Amino acid sequence: MQDTKSWLEKIGKTIDAKDAKGFSEFCTESGEFRFGNAESVVGRKNIEDYVAAFFGMIGSSAHEVLNCWDNGKEIVWEGKVVYTRLDGKVVPVNFTNIFYMDGDLIKRYLIFIDNTPLFT
Fold first, then answer.
1. CA dist 88 to 15, 61, 83, Å?
2. Mode of pairing for the β-strands spanning 105-113 and 27-35
């Protein structure tokens, strides 16, 4: 796999472009995606649909890699995302993502985030 930080930045750019299909392609065909405290979504197409719906709820986002760790099987991304809400308000939020890998694809994508400020 390419340099971990560059790979994470590529994921961030895909999200920031609101490319739900491109985002889902980082996951295995039967991958699991969990956003915060929401129920997990399983399967690449379901992940694509879920993320597309979320993209429709925000104006834009800008992701940053603050730190990352890669042990060859799991990757941890400590990051910051700056959301622009549909009303134009800018909301920065810290997050941590944990990726359980299957080769170069993510089989479990877990986002630990408190998005309360985004929707209040």
1. 18, 12, 9
2. parallel
pLDDT tens for 66-101 read 999 999 999 999 999 999 999 999 999 999 999 999
Q: What residue spans define the domains of the chain? A: 4-119
CATH architecture of 4-119: Roll (3.10)
Give CA–CA dist 32/110, Å, rounded.
8
User: What pLDDT, in 10s, does the model give residues 23-66?
Assistant: 999 999 999 999 999 999 999 999 999 999 999 999 999 999 99
Strand partners, 63: 81
Buried b (16+ CB within 10 A) or exposed e, 95-118: bebbbebeeeebebbbbebebeeb
* DSSP annotation of 33: E
